[in-house]
Amino acid sequence: KKSEASGVMPKADIKPKSMHCAKKWSGEVENLYRFQQAGYRDEAEYKQVKQVDTVECWPETGFVKKLQRRDNTFYYYDKERECQDQDVHKVKIYVY
């Protein structure tokens, strides 16, 4: 399942039009949580900064598997959910 932000991206700096916080957990919220832990808004910003076309995901769940932070260290994630209920409201969902 691809996120809506992963269409064809111009290399120009794209800015979100608006932002809201997640209310309940979903697969999309889980992946946003992982991108935001690594220091990015979302998949679109990650691809733009790191100049990559794809993000490594777990085939079973579709969750992000590995992300490279801006300081070039890596974050590795489990197949299972990592965003706990008490953290869901901290996840920002950006609208472009």
TrEMBL record:
The UniProt entry, under Pfam families, shows: Meiosis_expr
The organism's taxonomic lineage, starting at the top: Eukaryota, Metazoa, Chordata, Craniata, Vertebrata
Query: What is the gene called?
Result: Meig1
Q: What is this protein called?
A: MEIG1 protein
Give the protein's biological function: Essential for spermiogenesis.
For this chain, the family text in UniProt reads: Belongs to the MEIG1 family.
A GO cellular component term found in this entry reads: nucleus
Q: Which domain of life is it from?
A: Eukaryota
